[in-house]
Amino acid sequence: MKPRTVVSMEQALSLPYATLRFAQMGWRVIKLEAATPEGAHQPGDPNRHIGELIADEGRRSYYVGPNVGKEAIALNLKEAEGQGVLKQLIQELDVDVFCCNTIPKRYEQLGIDYETLSAVKPDIIWAGLSAMGPDYPNVPGYDPIIQAMVGYMEVTGFADGPPTASGIPLVDLKAGDELYANVIMGLAEKLETGQGKRIDVSMLQASASWLITLLPLIDMGCGPEEVTRWGNAHRKFIPTNVYPTQDGFIYLAIGSNKQWQNLAGIGKFAALDPELKRNTPAQRYADREDIYKEIGEISARHPTDHLSADLAAAGIPNAPINTIHQVHTLEAIRAKMTETSLPDGKFLRMQPMATDLDGTVTSLHFPHIYGADTVSVLGEAGYSETDCETLRQKGIIS
After folding, report:
1. Which of 5, 199, 377, 389 is the most exposed place for a label (fewest CB within 10 A)?
2. Tens digit of pLDDT for each residue in 185-210?
3. CATH value at residue 297
4. Which CATH number characterizes residue 364's domain?
C-alpha cells in the first residue's frame, strides 16, 4: 500500500500507539494538539509531561515511544477560524485519514465530525476512538477504568487476592490495534468503491471481544470458578502454572494428555503419576491443587536452566519468568527493535514492530517539540509566514 497522509488529533496512548503503526509503514503522520496561549503550563498532549526528563520538558519518557516519526502541529479548534485551517490542511495536503480520540460530544463542537470533514474531502477515512463509542458521548476513556468495567481485573490476580490491573495497558493497545486494522480495511475498500468511511472504535467493545474464553461460558451454565481469578494457572489446561525453582520461577504449559505423559516420564517428575491415573483432563482438574503442590515441591529443588532443559527435551513448553531488563537482551527481540536518536545524538532502542513487513521504517525520528511543524505544514497548505504570524497572534496556532 502506498504511503498515506494521516492527521491525528491525539493524546494519551491508545491513538498515538495506533498512528505509530502508520509511521512505521512510512506514512506521514501529523499529530494535531490543541493550541494554547504562549507561556501556558504543560501545553499539548498531557503525556508529553509524564515520566523522566529525556530531551526537554514536553518530551519525557512516557511520551517518546508512541510518538516517534510524527510531525507536531497545534491548532485552536474551539474557534471557527481554526476549524477553517484544518479544512484547508485536509484539502491541500490531500489527507487520506483523520483520527481523533476526544470524547464524542466534542466532535461537532470542534468541527472534526465525519459529516463536516467528509464534506471537505468525500473520500476521507475518518476514525474516532473513545471509551464506549458515540452512543456514550460523554464518557472519557482510561485504560484501567475500562479494564475494571470489562472484567479484566476480575479475572487477573489470585483467587484469595484483590482484582488486579494488567501490567501493560491492554485496553489502550487493543483499541489502538483495532483502529489501525479498520483504517487499513477502509483504505482497501476505498480502492474498490472510491468512497470514504466512518470508523468508530469503542475501547469497551474492543476489549470485550477478547473475552472469548469467558463470556460464552455464562450461557453455558459453567460454574463461578470458571469466570474468576486463577492466579497464574490455566482454568482448563492442568497443570499449566508458574512453579518455584531453586533460583527463581519457571512457567510450564501442559496442553494435552501426551504432554502430561511426557512430564511424568521425566525422572525427577516420575512420582507425579507412575500409573498414569491422572491421564485425563477431568482427573487432572479434580486433582489440580495436589498436582500444583507436588510439582512445586519437585521444581523448587532444581535450578531453572536444568528444569527448562529437561522440559524442552520432553516437548513441554516452558519459559523462565524474565524481567523487562532480560527481555531487552533477548536476541529474538533485540534483533527486531525499532530505534530513534535523541537531539544530542544518543541512540535509543525501542519496542519491535508487531510484524515484519516490506517497506516499513524501523528507525524513526525523535518526537518533535510541541507545535514544531505548525508553520511548515501550514505553508504547504498555502499560508504565508505573515498569515501564520497573524494566526499566532489570534491564538489560532501555537
Report:
1. 389
2. 999 999 999 999 999 999 999 999 99
3. 3.30.1540.10
4. 3.40.50.10540
Q: How far apart are CA 275 and CA 24, in angstroms?
A: 55
Beta carbons within 8 Å of 333's beta carbon, 6+ residues apart: 327, 352
Q: How far is CA 369 from CA 17, 159, 228, 383, in A?
A: 18, 46, 45, 21
1 pLDDT band (50/70/90 cuts)? confident
- E strands of 122-192, at which residues? 125-130
- Looking at the domain assignment, is residue 163 inside a domain? yes
Report how far residue 321's alpha carbon sits from residue 310's, in angstroms, rounded to the nearest whole number.
17
CA distances to 43, 169, 315, 387, 388 from 392, in Å: 15, 37, 66, 9, 6
Residue 2 pLDDT:
83
Domain span including residue 319? 241-325
Please tell me the distance from the alpha carbon of residue 223 to that of residue 65, in angstroms, as a whole number.
42
All cell numbers assigned to 2: 502506498
Q: Do 273 and 364 lie in a common domain?
A: no
Which are the contacts of 141, defined by CB distance < 8 A and separation ≥ 6?
14, 101, 103, 129, 130, 131, 132, 175, 203
Round to whole Å and give the CA distance between 229 and 331. 33
The pTM score is 0.95
CA 331 from centroid of its chain's CA atoms:
23
Residues 211-246 pLDDT 10s: 999 999 999 999 999 999 999 999 999 999 999 999
Q: For residues 314-328, b (16+ Cβ closer than 10 Å) or e, as one string?
A: bebebebeeeeeeee
**Catalytic hit among 172, 287, 305, 387:** 172
Per the annotation, the verdict on 172 as an active-site residue is: yes
Reported as type and span, the H/E element at residue 363 is none
Residue-wise pLDDT tens digits, 300-340: 999 999 999 999 999 999 999 999 999 999 999 999 999 99
